[in-house]
Amino acid sequence: MPRKLSHIAPDWWDYTTLDSALINDAAKLTERDLRQLSRPGFKVVMYDTLEDFYLAEALEYIAAWKQATADNPVGICGPIGPTEQLPLVARLVNELGLSLKHAHFWGMDEWYDDKTKKEVPVTHALSFERADRELCFDRIQKKLMMPESNLHFPKAKVADYVKTWHAGVRCAVMQGGQGDIKHWAFNDPLKRTGKYKDAPPSPAEYRKLGTRIVELHPVTLSQNARTSGGGNITMVPKMAITVGPQETWLADKVSIWHAGAHDNPLGQRLTALMISKRLADAAVPMSLLADHPNVQFNYFRGGLGSCSVEMH
Fold first, then answer.
1. Helix (H) or strand (E) holding 176
2. How far does Cα 9 stand from its chain's mean position?
3. CATH 3.30.590.10 fits 15-303, yes or no
């Protein structure tokens, strides 16, 4: 018996194909309920202010990079979305006089141009590499900045990027936000076609995916237009390059940051519930982190919102 069709995009898998009882259970969760979802391997942390929230996110960069030495290079894999932590990272590095000579950074995703068969150039208005450089790395004092060779941004030729994950550099933490489609990076649900017409891939199948070029779910296109392009969906590429579960499982820790500016109140609750209860389902890619040994969900209390009906 095939699962129900998506309420949003019938040709795709997504969270609306889940059992309604699970969705309704998630909608009922209070802040206290969320905090109680912590278990060994999954920690829920709350922040009272956005200042504290983004400072804590920035400090994860500093904590990772402070561990880096010539014999033990260490890096962090970071997102675009959120971005508010990035200028704070640069300021902290400069104020602390922290040399990044042996530190590394991986960008987690980038837009892909299907016409040129390449990653979008840094001149593209939505370029993630451009955002990382302008908001963070270009602001770090040159004497402290890591070598250019220690900056790893995803490219259309994914093999070179993948090699950096197996070059003896430890990834202390992979950060991320959560999109409306419940992804980290651009690990979106798959299309409902071929062998996945009646059921999504098993969690084990999805976890085998590495860095790759992907077609994006319509919800992801709409969200990026809303959060970054003033609603102009025509400027959002339909494809992207994304770090995969294979690389994610190489990170010591996965740290997801919910400010309330990206996913909605239901989504912030649903994935936490699924990870806590180990309900991994590839229609909700974030839920696959249920099997990672060290995951932390960070919430801004003011961004949790409510799932109660309120007409506007």
1. strand 170-176
2. 22
3. no
Measured distance CA(120)–CA(114) in Å, rounded? 9
The overall longest dimension of the chain from CA atoms, in Å, is 62
List alpha helices for the chain, DSSP H.
20-27, 31-35, 50-65, 85-96, 128-135, 158-164, 203-207, 218-228, 245-248, 265-276
Cα distances (angstroms) measured from residue 2 to each of 5, 15, 22, 48, 197: 9, 15, 18, 43, 8
Separation between Cα atoms, residue 238 and residue 214, nearest integer Å = 9
| Full pLDDT tens readout for the chain, 312 residues | 678 999 999 999 999 999 999 999 999 999 999 999 999 999 999 999 999 999 999 999 999 999 999 999 999 999 998 899 999 999 999 999 999 999 999 999 999 999 999 999 999 999 999 999 999 999 999 999 999 999 999 999 999 999 999 999 999 999 999 989 999 999 999 999 999 999 999 999 999 999 999 999 999 999 888 888 788 888 888 999 999 999 999 999 999 999 988 889 999 999 999 999 999 999 999 999 999 999 999 999 999 999 987 777
* Sign of the torsion formed by the C-alpha atoms of 151, 155, 159 and 160: negative
Side-chain-facing half-sphere of 191: CA atoms under 13 Å: 7
Q: CB neighbours of 43 closer than 8 A, spacing ≥ 6?
A: 295, 296, 297
Residues whose CB is less than 8 angstroms from the CB of residue 242 and which lie 6 or more positions away in sequence, other chains included: 108, 109, 154, 185, 186, 187, 211, 212, 214
> DSSP letter string over 77-115?
EE-SSS-THHHHHHHHHHHHT---TTEEEEE-EEEEETT
